[in-house]
Amino acid sequence: MTKAKPGAAIVALISGGLDSMVAGGLAREAGYRIFALTIDYNQRHRVELEAAGRVARMLGAERHIVMPLDLSQFGGSSLTDPDMAVQKTGLEPGIPTTYVPARNTIFLSVALGWAEAVGAHDLSIGINALDYSGYPDCRPEFITAFEAMAEQATKAGVEGQAFKVHAPLAAMSKADIAREAARLGLDAGQSWSCYDPLPNGRPCERCDSCRLRAKGFSEAGLIDPLLA
């Protein structure tokens, strides 16, 4: 990420996962004041909300908002519908059941509202377009389209103050992301990735998110402190 202007703020979407932690860490390294936003969408892996609090504190966020937005009322995803099983057969082609309809569009829209309210013109999201589960809202094309929408949808935008959505992990592999966490001095053990935690509170190690995380740490030659 490019160096922030003195005093510049960024609204960083912090899920509690490894990717958003590293994206937030890069924003902190660039000199941004961190306003952390976590969406409580009534996800089945609610333990990630606790992780989000730990990550926000680790990043030195000036403020951390946990916004309730119950997407389970819509359904359509195994992360919000208890009657749908989380896919655990390995990484397969196509969009998996863990896709939450329009999730990143919804989350970035909320972040955009907070950014405009606090006078920030930068947003951060930890999307990854290389090692990802096939979600359409994790692609660079989506980010470009959202920035164009933000310019037309806000008072700041129509007055010529463009918004920048920073997606610094978009072209990174999961191994790159694991290495960045180590380089930034971030404790990856404070993050959470598993979509379907076991009754004992441990990661299932079989869902797509667990598999991608394990692949990343293995290829980076690092031990995942969450599983140590």
TrEMBL record:
Documented EC number(s): 6.3.4.20
Organism: Sphingomonas paeninsulae
Keywords recorded for this protein, A-Z: ATP-binding, Ligase, Metal-binding, Nucleotide-binding, Queuosine biosynthesis, Zinc
UniProt key word Mitochondrion: no
CDD domains membership: QueC-like (cd01995)
HAMAP family: QueC (MF_01633)
Gene this protein is translated from: queC
Enzyme class name: ligase
GO molecular function, one term: ATP binding
InterPro entries: QueC, Rossmann-like_a/b/a_fold
Function: Catalyzes the ATP-dependent conversion of 7-carboxy-7-deazaguanine (CDG) to 7-cyano-7-deazaguanine (preQ(0)).
Cofactor(s) of this protein: Zn(2+)
Stated name of the protein: 7-cyano-7-deazaguanine synthase
Chain positions recorded as Zn(2+) binding sites: 194, 204, 207, 210
Family of this protein: Belongs to the QueC family.
Cofactor note: Binds 1 zinc ion per subunit.
Catalytic activity line of the entry: 7-carboxy-7-carbaguanine + NH4(+) + 2 ATP = 7-cyano-7-carbaguanine + 2 AMP + 2 diphosphate + 2 H(+)
GO annotation, biological process: tRNA queuosine(34) biosynthetic process
Residues reported in the UniProt entry to bind ATP: 14-24
Metabolic or biological pathway: Purine metabolism; 7-cyano-7-deazaguanine biosynthesis
